[in-house]
Every structure is written in C-alpha cells, then in structure tokens.
C-alpha cells in the first residue's frame, strides 16, 4: 500500500515536507516558509540559487542532470529521467540544469560534457557519470548512489 504522503524538498528553504498523495486541487505550501511546493515526481528546472540551496540544505538526495538543448544524448536521456523521477518520488529530487542558460553553475561543478549526472547528498557529491546509457543501467547507477 502506498503512503498517504510523499516527501518533497522546498525549493526556497530546503525544508523536507510531507506532500499529500491526493491534495484535492489545493495548493500545497512549505510548512516552514509557506512557498508553494513542487509536485512530487516531477523533474524540476530551478534557477541556480535554488539548486545551490537544495544542495546545501535539502535532506533528500538530488539527481542533477546537466544538459544542453542541442545535445542528442541529452534528448535520449530525457524520458529516462522523467520516468525515474516519477518512480523515485519521495526518495529523490530530480533537477535539470541547462548548461547553455546556466554556464556559471555548470562551471562551478566542473561540467566538461553533457549529459552529466550528479547525485548529491547533504551537500556532498556522491556520484558522477557522463553520457547516455540504457534505462536499467542508469536506474541501477542512481539506486547505488541515492
């Protein structure tokens, strides 16, 4: 049986919140800062300050997809990332960072190629891999890190 609530991190303050599985059309806000919470299981593409905030203060592990819109392997990985985000809702926050739009953030993480995937836990990089891979291999890699 599925739990009634799913854990989600607030993009503004990093607090872990319990998001109701069926909010009944109501807006769900952070218990700490009252900012609207993102729906669990969605791939998020926040601005750099929110990415850094989640890395520094979020309790849930993060999977960060550094990508470019002109990269074919990035396009190949997009549905795999979406699927993984849905399956791991409540266990993992999935973020995308467009390296063309946020080059400073990509440089801060020493991103040399796209796609590059990072798993972060409590401010520390736990794993990094670059390039496209089959869904099973990618899911297993993420599971071994997050």
Key attributes of the depicted protein:
single chain; alpha+beta; Glutaredoxin; four-stranded mixed sheet; two-stranded antiparallel sheet; 4 helices; globular
Residue ranges: pLDDT <50 for 5 or more in a row?
none
Number of domains: 1
What Rg, in angstroms, do the CA atoms define? 15 Å
Say what the CATH topology is: Glutaredoxin
The overall pLDDT, averaged over residues, is 94
The CATH homologous superfamily is termed Glutaredoxin
Task: State the helix count.
Answer: 4
Q: Largest sheet at a glance?
A: 4 strands, mixed
- Inertia-based shape: globular
Q: Strand order within the widest sheet?
A: 4-3-5-6
Alpha-beta classification: alpha+beta
Q: For the terminal residues, how far apart are their CA atoms?
A: 23 Å
How many strand segments? 6
Q: What is the CATH-assigned architecture?
A: 3-Layer(aba) Sandwich
The CATH class turns out to be Alpha Beta
| SSE sequence, one letter per element | EEHEHEHEEH
* Strand-residue proportion: 15-25%
What's the helical proportion of residues? 25-40%
């Amino acid at each position: 049986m599925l739990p009634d609530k799913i854990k989600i991190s607030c993009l503004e303050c990093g607090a872990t919140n319990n998001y109701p599985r069926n909010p009944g059309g109501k807006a769900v806000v952070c218990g700490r800062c009252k900012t609207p919470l993102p729906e669990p299981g969605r791939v998020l593409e926040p601005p750099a300050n929110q990415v850094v905030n989640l890395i520094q203060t979020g309790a849930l592990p993060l999977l960060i997809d550094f990508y470019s819109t002109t990269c074919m392997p990035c396009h190949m990985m997009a549905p795999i990332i979406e699927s993984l985000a849905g399956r791991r809702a409540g266990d993992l926050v999935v973020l995308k960072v467009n390296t063309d739009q946020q080059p400073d953030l990509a440089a801060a993480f020493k991103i040399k190629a796209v796609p590059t995937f990072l798993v972060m836990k409590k401010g520390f990089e736990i794993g990094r891999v670059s390039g496209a891979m089959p869904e099973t291999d990618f899911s297993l890699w993420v599971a071994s890190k997050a």
